[in-house]
């Protein structure tokens, strides 16, 4: 293995560790939103908190699942009182979903907890190291962005 291949292999291992740890942390934090909340559902809530009301088809494209899957996830979140259906402003036959007040409050609590945890993890780093890490991660994420595997009708 060449030094470049070894570096890439090490990076791949570190990504795998990061993803595994982040998924576990999201699961724990999601349960703080509601004990019955799954990781995928928390990601939907966070997306709604960031982007506002969305149609189910847009959410399905965002997370890369089918319409029946997103429908089941949204029904679960609605039953937990975290989202509600609202008439789509541009089409009275369609609907969007949005966070309830409880949903907003719970997502914000988790966001603050995640930020606190990240602050703890980076507490021993110099400010310049944190800025550099953030810039490099943003650069990587920008280059890693790919179009969704299926057409989503212009949804984000």
From TrEMBL:
Keywords in alphabetical order: DNA-binding, Transcription, Transcription regulation
Keyword Transcription regulation on entry: yes
Organism superkingdom: Bacteria
One example GO MF annotation: DNA-binding transcription factor activity
Entries under SUPFAM superfamilies matching the protein: Winged helix' DNA-binding domain (SSF46785)
Coiled-coil features, chain-numbered ranges: none
Any GO BP: response to stress
Domain HTH marR-type: 8-142
Keyword Ion transport: no
Record protein name field: HTH marR-type domain-containing protein
């Amino acid at each position: 293995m060449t030094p470049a291949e070894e570096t890439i292999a090490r990076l791949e291992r570190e990504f795998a560790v990061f993803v595994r740890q982040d998924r576990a942390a999201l699961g724990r934090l999601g349960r703080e939103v509601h004990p019955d909340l799954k990781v995928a559902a928390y990601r939907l809530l966070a997306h709604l908190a960031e982007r506002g009301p969305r149609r189910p088809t847009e959410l399905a494209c965002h997370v890369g699942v089918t319409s029946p899957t997103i429908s089941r996830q949204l029904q679960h979140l609605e039953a937990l009182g975290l989202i509600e259906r609202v008439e789509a402003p541009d089409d009275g036959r369609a609907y969007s979903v949005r966070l309830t007040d409880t949903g907003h409050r719970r997502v914000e609590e988790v966001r603050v907890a995640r930020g606190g945890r990240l602050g703890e993890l980076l507490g021993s780093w110099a400010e310049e190291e944190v800025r550099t890490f953030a810039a490099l991660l943003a650069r990587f994420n920008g280059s890693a962005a790919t179009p969704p595997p299926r057409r989503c009708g212009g949804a984000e």
